[in-house]
Protein 1
Amino acid sequence: MAQWVNKGVKLIQWQCPKDRSSMPTDLWWQAAKAGIWNHVSGQDLFDNGIDTIPVLYILNQPHVVHSFELPNDRSQLSAMSHAYDKIDPLPGIPFWQTLSGPEEILSCLARYPASHLARLRWGQGARIVLGNDIGFYFVSPGDLPPGYLDQVCAMVIAGGSVDSTHVRSNLENAFLIGYALENKKMVGCSCLKHPRKALIHRLKKAAGLDFSGCVERGYTSVRPEYRSLGVGRRLLEGLTARAGKYKVFAIIDEDNLATRKIARWNHTRKITTYFSEKTNKQMGIWMPDGMSPKSMKETP
């Protein structure tokens, strides 16, 4: 992929295979990280509706699959939104949808990097650039503006990485909630929550560490259009700086490379790992430098 970038590749046009089970998601990720624009072609992409796994992947990852061949019936576009847009859609439409196809997209990529073009939207006859005016806020649950707790709950659930059973009650009883706004739209959130007794017990049993009296950083969710802009990092920094008397810990799936990277950037280190029977995965426990739980035995 690095060789392609060095040779000047700016856009890859992927032809959607008839066998939808073989979508090249790993290659899409690699190309996007390298700064290459991914465009998926194939007007039959939507023949089986928009609820198929390949289409849902494409719609939910606009920062990975940047564009796709639009259906002949443009009325379908109003239904083609990802999970976050169903909460509160961003202003306008993606700018690439105003272009005629890959040739015009490539022409724009001669002037703008893919990361910039992906953040361009078109609304009310003007271009809108996402990410230039993000505000960050950190408040207790009781001080959230009316309706904001509902939005934070919806943002967390839209992220799809947590069990939604206790999301609302955990947020209502959280120590601190952080959220990011732009254009009056919520674009990211995270919180410091008081861990449930059941979790403290599980961690004692699985990792031999006592996290009573600590707060857990979690429920981090960032809209895909705003990823790689430092939103998650800023939320983590702000929450940690405001933890006060509490020590902070986070549980991160060992496969979640993006979140682990953000944690390292914020001077947070993994203190141990354990196997979670609940998720059937290996999990890491992370804490800011200088913090430790009770009776901790550090691992390298």
Protein 2
Amino acid sequence: MKHTKTYLFWLLLLFPQFAQSAEPALLLLEKYRSGMDVHGWLMSEKLDGVRAHWNGRKLLSRQGKDFAAPGWFTKEFPPFELDGELWIARSSFEETLSVVSRDQPHGGWQRVTYNIFEVPHAPGGLEARLKKLETYLSQRPLEHVRIIPQTLYHDAEQLMRHLDAIIAAGGEGLVLRNPDSSYETGRSSNALKVKRFEDMEGRVVGYRPGKGRLQGMVGALWVEIEGGKRFYVGSGLTDEERAVPPAIGSLITFKHQGFSSNGIPRFASFLRIREAP
């Protein structure tokens, strides 16, 4: 197995085009900043799961790849689209990713739930769109399909209390949504993520070889972010991750401390693989 991983690593390093795949058009979050007018918006927990899009027939990753979910998992799914997170529990992202990224159905899916925050292309505001799924589930209950609860935002103090409680319980953060906005795709100012530190996602497009103690391993990941800017992410990687790094084409999450004058994240540090290619 170790030799197989090493072979795949060098294959992808030399031929990164093999790892590329198309991404479906989905809603993406902007970052909440203090002072934003979000009165009357809805807030919900930002689950640290694996994004999954049900297109009415198949369960797909953000990159359009089929999840190898068992037949029972999707058998009674509705004929309309859903968007949500495959999730096991708080602080269990790696476990969830391990379960859902395998290329064959297996019993691990018994621990996974599909947590819905959007019903794409349904008419009306957010509550009306989610109501469509609520009505469907009232007639065909599915224990592993859940609608993420939404709470009305009152003020910044309430928001921070809720955020602190989620983080203390091992959660990732919150999402604020404009309830009056129609369904959108792409980056939207009507959907905001609320966290205690800045993070973002990028695509691994290459590697920088390690030196000295890291000879024969990866020294840094060559990462591309939205807008086409590229830079290295070297800190935050364990020796195990340097030996078998995220594959080219992987979507990763990294934290940073703002941006340089040319738009490059400052002090970027690897957090996790968000999605394998």
